[in-house]
Write a structure and sequence with these properties.
By secondary structure, this protein is mainly alpha-helical. 45% of the residues lie in helices and 9% in strands. It has 5 helices and 4 strands. A two-stranded parallel sheet has the order 1-2. Strands 3-4 form a two-stranded antiparallel ribbon. The longest helix is centred in the N-terminal third of the chain and has 15 residues. It is globular and about 45 Å long. The N and C termini lie far apart (44 Å). 23% of the residues are buried. The structure holds a DNA duplex (13 and 13 nucleotides).
DNA sequence: CCCTTGACTATCT
DNA sequence: GAGATAGCCAAGG
């Protein structure tokens, strides 16, 4: 394993581990938050290399769609994990929760 | 080295 | 909104 991967993975995993249930972050946001701007694509690799004990399902694309292709097992698994913690998905897009933990009615009606 | 590969993004049509 | 397109950047062949 390269030196880069070692440091990168640790920082990325650290950020992802701190995403609260019901909340999500995009690959780019995670990368920036970890101190690696422009490394969104690397985040996915760091996650695939992880122990799988972290909330990897809370990391989605910047347009709020899941990164996997609809219909795949991975897609189904991720959406299940998200739904299990109260997050809802409408028209393929993850609806963010408000700070009080409830779904914004505006977000719902808007689509 | 050069080329291809992504669990990506921002910016046009 | 759906495509296409051009950046992005470490890894692996």
């Amino acid at each position: 394993m390269s030196d880069f991967q070692n440091k990168f993975d640790l920082k990325i995993w650290d950020v992802v581990a701190k995403i609260k249930a019901g909340r999500v972050m995009s690959y780019g946001e995670v990368a920036r938050s970890a101190g690696f701007p422009r490394h969104a694509r690397m985040v996915s690799k760091a996650l695939s290399r992880s122990n799988n004990l972290l909330p990897w399902h809370r990391v989605i694309r910047s347009d709020r769609r899941l990164a996997f292709n609809k219909g795949t097992e991975a897609y189904k698994k991720q959406s299940d994990l998200l739904k299990n913690e109260g997050t809802i998905i409408v028209k393929g897009k993850v609806i963010p929760l408000k700070s009080d933990g409830k779904v914004s009615i505006d977000e719902l009606l808007w689509r």
